[in-house]
Amino acid sequence: MLRFGVFVLLPFVLFGCSSLRKPVAAKATPSIGPFYSKGVASWYGGEFHGRRTANGERYDQYGFTAAHRTLPFGTRLTVTNLANGLSTVVKVNDRGPFAKDRILDLSYGAAKAIGLVGPGTGVVQLELVDGPAPPPRYTVQVGAFSVPERANELHDRLQSTFPEVYVQTDGTWYRVQVGAFGERDQAEDMRRELAALGMSSFVIAAQ
Known about the structure:
By secondary structure, the chain is of the alpha+beta class. Helix content is about 15%, strand content about 35%. It has helices at about 110-115, 150-160, 185-195, and strands spanning about 5, 35-45, 65, 75-80, 85-95, 100-105, 120-130, 140-145, 165-170, 175-180, 200-205. The strands form two sheets. A six-stranded mixed barrel has the order 2-6-3-5-4-7. Strands 1, 8, 9, 10 and 11 form a five-stranded antiparallel β-sheet that branches. A hairpin with a 5-residue loop joins strand 4 (about 75-80) and strand 5. Mean pLDDT is about 80; it is low at about 1-35.
């Protein structure tokens, strides 16, 4: 059904409306790279200082590094705290975060630079600067909207279960997509996971 200029691709299960955060206006994908994501970030500090990270480096809490579940080690990201607009660039050298509702763990130094140490967590935007591997080739699309607020509403409802959800836009359509995969089979696994929850989606080539 076409309504309010919106084309919705799925009937989806509502995830606890009382836990939804206020939608943030969607924006165009940054020109510096194809990867754009929003979500909750946290940080880790002194108790891990000097320990080995997942790529074998020693963790320096005063450095500018981050833990991400899937991005290749060495990938550099611009991380922007959406509460205050402060940004910093970090290098992915560890895996995590292990909390389901978070997309990134920052080093203490990086978190301090964007005002995240005091609150402990915050909503951030991630933009790809560069990385050692080609960009992802596939993603799973769950909805396309002509109105950014509708895309943000769906994004926020999905985020507690799928923290890798993000909004991709060409300035006309705002596409809600989940995951970034190098292999089609990985994307198909995500599509089946969404289908098991009653959500219609399909695999497309990543932009």
